[in-house]
Amino acid sequence: MSIAIYHNPACGTSRNTLAMIRQSGEEPHIIEYLKEPPTREKLVQLLLAMDMRPRDLLREKGTPYGELGLSDPKWTDDELIDLMMQYPILINRPIVVTPLGVRLCRPSEAVLEILPNPDIGTFVKEDGEAIIGKAKSRTR
């Protein structure tokens, strides 16, 4: 089973998501996107798979979002993607890719929606919040 996570080890949400994937029994391919940013083509593919517009994937906190004036609606999707390529920190994370889908996992427990084995038992996030992973029913 192939799972990938676009990960920032400095981000608690990203660390929690990675830990939930591992608790599900999978070892994902970890892409530290600040060191190894996705190509423009890959970012567009991820956006399409998540049914998101570039603006929906922008991260504001701890980024040049404000300095660049990205809240202004004048920016086109192509321009926003260009800026994400120039400043990968603008890409919100973690993005998880599994055979069941692609999600921006904010909050981290959103990963359970796309894990092949979401029955992870009790998981305690770094902030102490307990998450109960339960097997979901699958229609055939």
Describe the structure in your own words.
The protein has 140 residues and is an alpha+beta fold. The chain has one domain: Glutaredoxin, CATH 3.40.30. It contains four helices and six strands. The strands form two sheets. The chain has a four-stranded mixed sheet with strand order 2-1-3-4. Strands 5-6 form a two-stranded antiparallel sheet. Strand 3 (95-98) and strand 4 (101-104) form a beta hairpin. The longest helix has 12 residues, at 12-23. It is globular. The model has no long low-confidence stretch (mean pLDDT 94).
Write the layout of secondary structure elements.
Elements: E1 4-7, H1 12-23, E2 29-32, H2 40-50, H3 65-68, H4 77-86, E3 95-98, E4 101-104, E5 121-124, E6 130-133
Parallel strand pairs: 1-2
Antiparallel strand pairs: 1-3, 3-4, 5-6
Keywords:
4-stranded mixed β-sheet; 4 helices; 26% helix; alpha+beta; two-stranded antiparallel ribbon; globular; 140 residues; Glutaredoxin
